[in-house]
Amino acid sequence: MSVSRRRLPDGRERLTVHGELTSLTASAFCEQLLALLAAGSRLELDLTGVEFIDGRGLRALYAVQSAAAPDQATIIAAGASLDVLMRLTHTSPLLGYRPPEGTAPR
Q: Which fold has domain 2-88?
C-alpha cells in the first residue's frame, strides 16, 4: 500500500491511497493518520486506488474517524468495491464518507 500526500490551498491534506488496506497494512496506515490528526491536520482521503479492504482495514478507517474532530477527516472518494462495502455494511456515515448524490449501491 502507498499513500501520497498533498497540501491543498486551504491547508487540508489530501491523502491518496493505493493498494490493499488489510491486516498487513492497516496498523501502519492508522498510526500515520492518527499522528496527522494529533498534529491538527485536516484530512481528505481519496480511496479510489484501494483495490481490496478487509475488516481490519475498515476498523482502521473507523479508528481514524473516531479520533477526528468533526469534519477533520473525510473520505472524499472511494473505489467501486469499497463504496459498495461501506454501503452494504452501513458504515459510510461512521467512516466520514458521503457517497456521490444520485448513486445507488451497485
A: Transcription Regulator spoIIAA (3.30.750)
How far apart (Å, rounded) are the C-alpha atoms in residues 57 and 50?
10
Reading the block at residue 6, the C-alpha cell is 498533498
18: helix, strand or coil? strand
Question: Residue 106 in contact with residue 82, Cβ under 8 Å?
Answer: no
- At 1-26, the pLDDT tens digits run 999 999 999 999 999 999 999 999 99
Write the CB contacts of 94 (distance below 8 Å, at least 6 apart in sequence). 62, 65
What is residue 103's predicted lDDT score, i.e. its pLDDT? Answer: 55
pTM equals 0.88
What is the pLDDT at residue 48?
Answer: 94
Cβ 69 vs Cβ 34: under 8 Å: no
For 30, other C-beta atoms within 10 Å of its C-beta total 20
Residue 92 clears pLDDT 80, i.e. is over it? yes
